[in-house]
Amino acid sequence: MEHDLSINIDRLLGRLAELAEIGAIEGTEGCARLALTDEDKAGRDLVVTWMTDLGLEVSVDGIGNVIATMPGEGPPVMTGSHIDTVRTGGRYDGNLGVLAGLEVIETIQAAGITPARRFAVGFFTDEEGSRFAPDMLGSLVYVGGMPLEEALDISGIDGAIVGEELERIGYAGSAPLPGPSPHSFVELHIEQGPVLEIEDVTIGAVDGVQGISWTEVEVVGQSNHAGTTPMGLRKDPGFVAAACANFARELALELGDPQVATVGRIDLHPNLVNVVAATATFTVDLRNTDEATLQESEQRFAEFLEKTASAEGCTVETRTLARFEPVIFDPAVVDIVESASSNLGYSVKRMPSGAGHDAQMFARVCPTAMVFTPSVNGISHNPAEYTSPEDLEAGANVLLHTMLALANLETT
Ligand code: GLV
Ligand code: MN
Ligand code: MN
Description:
By secondary structure, the chain is an alpha+beta fold. It folds into two domains: 289 residues, 3-Layer(aba) Sandwich (Aminopeptidase); 114 residues, Alpha-Beta Plaits (2-Layer Sandwich), CATH 3.30.70.360. Helices cover 35% and strands 21% of the residues. Strands 1, 2, 3, 4, 5, 6, 14, 15 and 16 form a nine-stranded mixed beta sheet that branches. The protein is globular. The two termini are 29 Å apart. The model has no long low-confidence stretch (mean pLDDT 97). Bound molecules: glyoxylic acid and manganese (II) ion (MN) (2 copies). One manganese (II) ion binds next to loops.
């Protein structure tokens, strides 16, 4: 009978739409709810209301992670994700995993099912890392990967401080950190890439996450007149930044898939048409599923930066914003995702994740895997992000049956 159990897609779509109204980007389906902003607070308050309405025990810890657990004893089978977004985000990234978790719990409650282990659903602070680096900050602190004090001191792209913002929005909670390890963890997320759509597969059974390396580079040169300074006498940080962006792409192409490289932010100062810039601050995001190749890309990028800046007479300082090694998920949990999908009649493919996720932090403390659903045109971190209701339903049903199976899984 449990086999026929199915989530209510209209209820899930309703919650996704209601949450997406908060921080809605006009004229699009997307949202802007950067971590710990007023919009994030409003989104949090709404989701907490839904958690409470389901009779769940809601805890908030010192980094603002919110976890709702079914009453009872023992480590739960946990799901969850994040509700913060990038500034130009879609409505599914993260939000789907949280609201599908609520939907799973509401479904089993309505069916009168008591799983062998209780369920929990959480949303974790600042998964995106767009405002405060590193990404996955809340789940990192939850699993003991960063001391709370260090996290609270982080300053953002707008100069705000994590600890002050948590106090300001009322989400500096008192639940202990590191948090208690769940029995197991599974996160539903949109793929955010093109693979499932291209291969016409409904579900990704995610077996790992590629390594992430984020660096902020500050290049200092000599600000000068754009008309009078001969090319050979320039110390131009703008040129160094542009050359590095170009090199990052060449490097990724040379190393080949799955290496990727992105210069996503460049700030020139004073940023004027007729002034050679005084400084350039830019970021580089390097990723690979293979740690050795990721290290090679970091080293070669650093060498190019040093060489180019010094030839231009500029000085350079770098700061690591995030560095996470590739993660391999628990094969037994990936198997469960795969068989839950097949049992429900969905096509399924084992695949790595290109994006970072809270699940990769939980993999440090308990058996973990993820469920992916297709992203139309592979678009994400963009208000145009879209996944069809049929695929959302499939993903949430796989989450439901994976969690039911995990409740019976013996772990060591
Ligand atoms: C975080 O979501 C990332 O992968 O950039
Ligand atoms: Mn996400
Ligand atoms: Mn994201």
